[in-house]
Every structure is written in structure tokens, then in C-alpha cells.
Amino acid sequence: MPRKSMAKQRREELLDAFERCIIKYGLEGTSLEQVADEAQMTRSIIRHYIGNRDDLVSALIDRLIRQYAEQLTENYADIPPEQMVSYAVDNMFSQKDALSVREKIIIDVLMTAKERYPDAKKKLIQMYDAVIQSFASDLERQYPNATQAQCWQIAYAVVCISEMNETFMWLGMNPRYHADARQVAENLLASLNS
Question: What burial letters (b/e) apply to 30-42, b meaning 16+ CB within 10 Å?
């Protein structure tokens, strides 16, 4: 019987180690040697299963995007279309963290490295664009009298407010701003009724 491939397991172990190194040393401070040590493997194993440093960053972003998409799919699977917008807003402005501290740190670090890793930047843009497109489509269904342009503008604005609000809350801003951010989002949505 042929031996089971270890490629998927090794890739996950290496990406886990890479994440731990980023949290400890930052993205630019993390070397392939540190990742290898953290994973208790050799650099040649990294090169064999993933590739060079750019490939490691790209693989990490692919994994984060995949995990995020799986989480969204799972969260929205049983939501009726007519409740999708209110459910999305509830999730965007929930006071419980949608992302773990580890995920927030990794995404924040990758956002700051967008110029050094243009492929990472492109993938993050595609991810956020897909979120905005999905929300805009939900708005178009819920607000049939609004134009497509209005729905897209509101979708973008609400996602921006949500993302910045979450960042501010994570930094420790006064929680009273959370309710204000949600109210502004609700006001924008209400404008689609006019």
C-alpha cells in the first residue's frame, strides 16, 4: 500500500510556525531559519513543501482567505435571503470578535507589508472586493428601488466603517463609539429606502 502524502500536513505545520514567528518577530524580522526552527524542520523542508519567502507569505494569505471564506459560508448557510442584510450588519458590528487575536495580528502585519509583497496585496484586495460584492448583491435584493450604484456605494461604506470600527475597538477605543458606528451604518442602509 502506498504511503500517505504528508504534503498537506507539512504545509499546515509550516504555516502555523510562520504565523508564530510573525507574532514574535514581525514579518520582516522573521527568517526562513526561524520558521524552520519553530516548526522543528529544516529550511530545505520549507523550500520543498512551500518554496521561498514570497511563496510562504502567499501561502499564508491563501490560508487566511480560505479560512475566512469557510467561516462566512458556514455562518451564512442557513440565513434566508430576506434576512441576509440584517444578519450581515449584526455580524459586522458584533461586539464579539469575529477574528482571533492571532488572525488580527497576522492580517495587520500583512497589510503593512503590502508594497513588499504585491501578490499578497492583490489577494487581500480580491478578498475585500468579494465581501463588498456579496454585500452589495444582498442590498440590491433587499432594496429593489435603489440603484445598483447606490447599493455598491453603501456596501463599500458600511464595510469600511465596520473594518475601521473593529480596528479601533481592538486598539482599545471607548466602546461607546461602537454603537455610533453601527448607527451610521444603519442610517446609510435606511437611505436606500428613499
Answer: bebebbbebbebe
Predicted confidence band at 15 (pLDDT cuts at 50, 70, 90)?
very high
Contact between 137 and 69 under an 8 Å Cβ cutoff? The reply is no
Distance CA 110, CA 98 (A): 18
pTM: 0.80
40, 68, 76 from 101: Cα distances, Å: 24, 14, 22
CA atoms in the 13 A half-sphere facing the CB of 88? 26
- With contact defined as beta carbons under 8 Å apart, do 154 and 189 qualify? yes
Alpha helix (H) ranges present in the chain?
7-25, 32-39, 43-49, 53-76, 84-92, 101-112, 118-142, 148-171, 176-190
**Average pLDDT of the chain to the nearest whole number:** 87
